[in-house]
Structure formats: structure tokens, C-alpha cells
Amino acid sequence: MSLETTSLAQLDTFFQKFFSQNCFETLYERLSTELRDSPKQKSEIPSAIEGLIFPRGMKKNEKFFLLMSTWYYPENPMSFYIKLECRKLFGKEFENEYFVLMSSKTLALGFWLSQTMWSDRDFFGNITRLRRNGFLFTLITVRRESTSKVEKYTGYCRGYSESGRYLPYRSKSVLKEKILTERQGEQRKFLRLIKLQLLLRLIKDRLRMELQ
After folding, report:
1. Which end of the chain has less Cβ packing within 10 Å, N or C?
2. Are 116 and 4 in contact (CB under 8 A)?
3. In this structure, is residue 154 part of a structural domain?
4. What is the chain's alpha carbon radius of gyration, rounded to the nearest angstrom?
5. Distance of alpha carbon 121 from the chain centroid
6. How far apart are CA 29 and CA 33, in angstroms?
7. Predicted local distance difference test score (pLDDT) of residue 175
8. 49: phi then psi, degrees, rounded to nearest 5
9. What is the pLDDT of residue 35?
10. Residue 159 domain-assigned?
11. Within-domain flag for 138
12. Measured distance CA(24)–CA(13) in Å, rounded
């Protein structure tokens, strides 16, 4: 199944209305205010922004919708930070989805149209539930640079001045574990690449239908 009866233009129009009439508009306005001014800041110059703090337990579709919303607030300064921070929010698990949703608006719309996990009715029903539970997005806040001083770690521990020395009897096991870890990492990377190619093929086929 997929969004068989919804066109690219219809979905674009729907998202434009959706993101401008609910919690997302409030989210961008509030985060933009936090970016410009920090009420808790004592000095006239606010501390540098380090990123965003996301609520725990965000579901994958909520993450997808959040990143998708940036295409409808291109002039808002928070759009840049949300795109940047979503890279860590998505993690390795949704790395392919992040790449697709970030690449272009057309490709992002094609992503929603080509998904087989829902039909037209299921998709818009999920959006309705998201609108009702939109309070989750109000928990997203700006994270600023800490002004407190942190003691620099020198790598020296009292009584263990030689703790970092080379231990020959452990070298073989450490090397073996490193090789296994690197091999597993390459295998996961290869599998993600295959999944990305399949995802892009689905999107390409759906977008080709839209252009006919």
C-alpha cells in the first residue's frame, strides 16, 4: 500500500496547511525567540547555542514530521538548527530516512508518497493523532553553551601514573576485537547502502508516475 490517490501537489498543499496551523508554527516561533533572547542570561551577550534538546521517546514518524517541517519554514533560523540536530536524533537507525528527507523537498514528498506501511486513510489518520498529541513538540528547547568552568582532564590519576602504558599480553586480543568491530561496521554500512538504494528506487518510481 501507499498514498495511491494522493498526488504530489495535493500532499504539498496539505503539508503547507498542516505545518502552519498547529504546534509546529508555535514551535518555530518559540525556538526563534529562545535563539534571539535568553531570559535566564545575566549578561547582555547570550551564550552560544550548542543545539536542541529533544524529548525522550519520540516515535519515528514524529521525527520524520519534525524534519519534514523544515521545508515549510525555510526562512526561519531554527530550520537550520533542526536539520542539523535531527542528524543525531535520527541516529544510525534512520540514517537513510534522514538523507532522503534532507536532500530536497520533492524527494521528501516522494518519500511520504511511496511508503508501503500505510494507505491514504491510514496516513491522514496518523496525522490527526499527531495533531492531538502535538504537545510533544512543545518540549523541544534550545541548548546553550554552559558557562561553568570544567576542570581539564590531563589523563593522570594519582597512584596510576603508568596506567596508560603498553601491555603486550593484551595486544592480540585487543587487535582481534578491533578487526571484528571494523568488519561489523563495514557490514552494517553496506546493508544501509542497499536499503537506501531500495528506498530511492521506490521514490523514483512514484515520482515518475507523478510526471506522467
Report:
1. C
2. no
3. no
4. 23
5. 26
6. 6
7. 67
8. -80, 135
9. 80
10. no
11. yes
12. 16
Give the separation between CA 75 and CA 58, rounded to whole angstroms.
26
In a domain, 201, yes or no: yes
The count of domains in the chain is 1
Q: How many residues does the chain have?
A: 212
Please name the residue that has the C-alpha cell 518555530: 28
Q: Which residues, at least 6 apart from 129, have a Cβ–Cβ distance to it below 8 Å?
A: none
Torsion angle of the four alpha carbons 13, 15, 16, 18, in this order, in degrees rounded to the nearest 10: 120
Which domain range does residue 79 map to? Answer: 8-146+169-211
Task: For residues 136 and 132, give the distance between their C-alpha atoms in angstroms, rounded to a whole number.
Answer: 10
Contact 67, 83 (CB under 8 A): yes
Cα–chain center distance at 14: 22
Helix runs in 37-94, H state only: 60-69, 77-90
pTM more than 0.85? no
Helix (H) or strand (E) run with residue 144 in it: strand 141-144
Backbone angles phi, psi at 79, to 5 degrees: -60, -40
Percent composition of the chain: helix, strand, coil (DSSP 3-state, to 5): 65, 5, 35
Q: What is the mean pLDDT of each run of 10 residues along the chain (212 residues)?
A: 81 90 85 73 58 89 93 92 94 94 95 83 75 75 71 54 50 64 80 90 89 74
